[in-house]
Amino acid sequence: MEYSVVVQSISIISLMIIIGAILSKSFKFSEDTRKVFISLILNVGMPCIILSSIFKVDMNQNTFKMIMIVFCLSIVINVTGIGIGWLFARLFFPKSNKRRELALLAGLGNTSFIGIPLCAVLLGPKGALYAAIFDAGVDVTIWTIGVLMLQKDKSYKIHTFKAMLNVPIIAAVLGLTMSYFQYKPPGLVIDLVDQLAAIAAPLAMFYIGILVMSLQLTKIKNDVSQVWLPILIKLVVLPLIVSFFLTFLILDLTIVQTLLIQSMMPTLTLASILFAKYAADENMGATTTVFSILLSLITIPLLIYLMNHFLVAI
To pair with 182 at 20 to 30 A between CA atoms, which of 85, 105, 139, 273? Predict the structure, then answer.
């Protein structure tokens, strides 16, 4: 992977975030505004990126095999991150009642908002497809292990499983089914999907920029003493561990690149929403999300440079 392409992509992402921060001054960032952004990104942009990638990739038995490998490795990586976060939280904050939040923030990454668009730019349609499958593994981890950790009664309900049936996952299943039966939609549909896919990255970065400007200073002061832990694990420790173990696996280069890039992603953007749903510390989720995103603009190109030279060539 050309390092200059990585730097250029991260620079574009940074500029989009800055634009979002500037735009935040022109309107009030209310709950309704947040819902509009999230709905457009998750229900329009992301599904179209997934479908666009599937339509451009030649599907065969080997490709489906690779998809299952990415999905399984995604769950393994996510669970590993959560486990490391839990162990570190017990070690550094033995009396804290926020170990659940710290563990989930350390293991679950922003593999949809940033990961899928970034893989699409750096790796092309196949990379975007694998990134979407990796994100499906993140969703499964969130609504199984994540929910089990956050719920007080430690049980699953019907709405928990319904939450796994989000639009990006439905798009992935639908697209893969169409591809498996070798059905290609009309050109008009493909062109529409391609154009709608282009809105995902800008909207996601604008949302992050607005989120940065909406974070209150008092929230940052309350959480800064603990959020360094999940940020360090998510942005540095976990990617290095994933890189080390991938050197022992014989995988397609695009899969290796996708797994590494997705493992480098900052903390889950929707962490604060997830925590609020289960009466956890949503302020900590928002603070960690913002700081990890800003720091990832430095750590992602730096880690890619180091891995190319010392661990696994990507």
Answer: 139
Tens of pLDDT, residue by residue over 221-262, are 666 778 889 999 999 999 999 999 998 888 999 999 999 999
Tokens encoding 67: 């998809």
CA distance readout (Å), 4 to 31, 125, 127: 38, 20, 18
d(CA 35, CA 44): 13
Token readout for 34 is 């947040």
Question: For the chain, which domains are there?
Answer: 3-310 (1.20.1530.20)
Q: How far is CA 206 from CA 24, 66, 117, 132, in A?
A: 9, 33, 14, 21
Count each helix (H run) and each strand (E run) in the chain, helices first.
16, 0
Mean pLDDT of the residues in the chain? 82
Q: Where are the beta strands (DSSP E) in 156-281?
A: none
Q: How remote is the C-alpha of 41 from its chain's centroid? A: 13
pTM for the structure as a whole: 0.80
Q: Measured between alpha carbons, how far is 179 from 176 in angstroms, rounded to an integer?
A: 5
Helix (H) or strand (E) holding 38: helix 31-40
Helix (H, G, I), strand (E, B) or coil at 109: strand
User: What is d(CA 114, CA 91) in angstroms, rounded to the nearest whole number?
Assistant: 31
DSSP code per residue over 162-178: HHH--HHHHHHHHHHHH
Beta-bridge partners for 267:
109
Average pLDDT over residues 200-204: 82
User: Where does the pLDDT of residue 4 fall: very low under 50, low under 70, confident under 90, or very high at 90 and above?
Assistant: confident
Please check whether residue 265 is in contact with residue 115, taking contact to mean a CB–CB distance below 8 angstroms: yes
- Residue 75: partners with Cβ closer than 8 Å, 6 or more residues away: 137, 140, 141
